[in-house]
Amino acid sequence: MFFVFLCFLFGSSGALLDPDTSNGNSDHTAILQLITQEQSLRLQLESQLHDQQKQMDTLLSRVNNLTDQLTKANQQVAFFGTVGTNIPSADWNKIIKFQQITTNIGSAYNINTGVFHCPVSGIYIVSCSAIGDFGHRVSVNVYQNGNIIARPYDGGIDPAGHASGTDTAVVHANAGDEIYLKDFYTGLTYLDNQTKLVVVLIKAD
Ligand SMILES: *[C@@H]1O[C@H](CO)[C@@H](O)[C@H](O)[C@H]1NC(C)=O
Ligand SMILES: *[C@@H]1O[C@H](CO)[C@@H](O)[C@H](O)[C@H]1NC(C)=O
After folding, report:
1. What is the four-CA torsion angle of 55, 60, 66, 68, rounded to 10 degrees?
2. Cβ atoms of residues 185 and 75 within 8 Å
3. d(Cα 193, Cα 87) in Å, to the nearest integer?
4. Cβ-proximal residues to 181 (8 Å cutoff; 6+ apart), any chain
5. Is any ligand 1 atom within 6 A of the Cβ of residue 58?
6. What tens digit of pLDDT does each residue of 147-189 get?
7. Is the CB of 172 under 6 A from ligand 1?
8. Consecutive sets of 10 residues in the chain, 205 residues long: mean pLDDT of each?
9. How remote is the CA of residue 169 from the centroid of ligand 2, in Å?
């Protein structure tokens, strides 16, 4: 419409400006009116366009934010592993490796090092159950970057039974944080092969 209007204005202006077609003053006034109208219309349209552009930018930014949130909400990180073989007490201060892996969604757990690397920052639940030898106490430290966040412990007084202690932590972790187990205690025997670890991302930031 705007384009048509301009064509009309400039298409006819040649004839209107022609001095031979007399009626000079009223023609000029009409042209000036048209030009003024056109200018104010153009300004209106420009300002409308500007407003719409701003609204579009806001909408795009909202869509991007929602897409980000959806991606994060759908992200799955979950580990569930069992030690698998008895670990002799001589290895008490080595990082415990979980060799029977039931779940490692997101591949955050490194089976070679025994370290769970948090792939995104967010809230994680970490739960460990440790089992010791017959009649022995059992405890093991669960670390996040060198800080103890959980420590399953059991007094283990039944000489005919395996003691089992469980502890659970809910922590905020940054991307790259490391969660691992080491420094266990089971007297002079071993940490049982049914010791288990669960780490699940509850919600990304
Ligand atoms: C999109 O997210 C950014 C960063 O979280 C925030 O600053 C901005 O206000 C959000 N935009 C909209 C339109 O919600
Ligand atoms: C697992 O632990 C049980 C009980 O201590 C033991 O009988 C079994 O031999 C162990 N298996 C392995 C593979 O370490």
Report:
1. -150
2. no
3. 7
4. 95, 96, 114, 128, 140, 141, 142, 143, 197
5. yes
6. 999 999 998 888 888 889 999 999 999 999 999 999 999 887 8
7. no
8. 44 48 79 94 96 97 94 93 95 96 97 97 97 88 97 87 92 98 89 96 94
9. 27
What's the chain's length in residues?
A: 205
CB neighbours of 63 closer than 8 A, spacing ≥ 6? Answer: none
> Which-ligand-closest: CA of 60?
1
Query: How much is the pLDDT for 94?
Result: 95
Please enumerate in sequence order all residues whose Cβ is within 8 A of that of 71, keeping only pairs 6 or more positions apart, or say none. Answer: none
Q: What confidence score (pLDDT) does residue 77 get?
A: 97
Q: Which atom of ligand 2 is nearest to the CA of 133?
A: 5
Q: Strand ranges (DSSP E) for the chain?
A: 78-82, 87-88, 100-105, 109-110, 115-117, 122-134, 138-144, 147-150, 153-154, 162-173, 178-185, 190-191, 196-204
**Ligand 2 centroid – CA 84 distance (Å):** 8
CA 90 distance to own-chain centroid: 40
Output the pLDDT for position 2.
45
List the Cα angle 128/130/133 in 5-degree steps.
175
Give the whole-angstrom CA distance, residue 31 versus residue 24: 11
pTM of the full predicted structure? 0.74
pLDDT of residue 8: 45
